[in-house]
Design a protein that fits this description.
- With about 350 residues, this protein is an alpha+beta fold.
- It contains 5 helices and 23 strands.
Length: about 350
Amino acid sequence: MKILKTFLALTALAAAYAVLSPRSASIPSDLRDAPGPSGAFDELPGSAGAAAAPEALPERAEPSAGKSIYGEDDRLEYFEAPADRRALADSVVSMWSSRWVRPELGKANLFVVSLKSAADLCPGERFAEQPAGAFCSGTLVGPDLVMTAGHCITDEAKCADTKFIFGFGLKKAGDYPSSVPESEVYGCKRIVKRALTTSTVGLLYHNFVNGGPGPDYALIQLDRKAQNHKPLSVNRGGAAVGTPLFVIGHPVGLPVKVAGNAHVRDTAAKYFFLADLDTFGGNSGSAVFNARNNRIEGILVRGGRDFIPSPAGCNIHYVLPQGGGKGESVTKIEVLEKYIP
């Protein structure tokens, strides 16, 4: 037994060395944020005063056991969602690099690219013509407090370079937004609380170490109190297996989408639960809601593959049966609820 324990320890250390080496990142490959460290949105040409629109989406997450769509694609536009969920969406922010936002005569112009050209989508894929640009999502949980994923805001410098924008969504069919009122754009004052545990062994062996990967969340104080947007309530009772869910956020940086018909699959891990939510890169930081009471159950943080190549040479959405795959990972709200008013 002692020899076996020693062998397992050495195996874990060897794996940790491989993951932490300069050739690979030390954070999970399946995080649901849009940009990577060298993503295209971080490489905009031109000067800070004359940046050109991005020509491609940031690097996608590597494939994992999960997936982006479970069964039917349940994503709805803002104007298609029920009234109560539209009200919740009014308190959701898209998160942008400051260089992609340009104020002009009372509005903020957003540098965007069509999803079709950016992701090389095949004809007929949903949302192909829509503009994309946000790198993460967040939700107002206090008068000037936004909740998001910890890997979306890595430090104070990243926070200072991020714009938190309300109202990036379709108010009617075909009305694709490329700007918002300047009053809907907020900056970062400070990081109130943040956690992102990148335990290599935990990430490699998931449930073998401390119940899986550690917590992933951030609470950001905005540069002023949000006007005309209501802080949303969290569910302080905890979610059980089978709890019906929906998520509101910005998949692949698109205008806000509301996706329901999902359920909690597994709550065994200490810091997160698994659910069959239709989410993508860009959904990181999205609030996941209890469909029974519209209260927040957690934060979408990890998931699976977004698109796969088709025989035609273009890309299609990755779809598996409703009950298939590993599921999307959601940081439990109980991990951070004590920091929320």
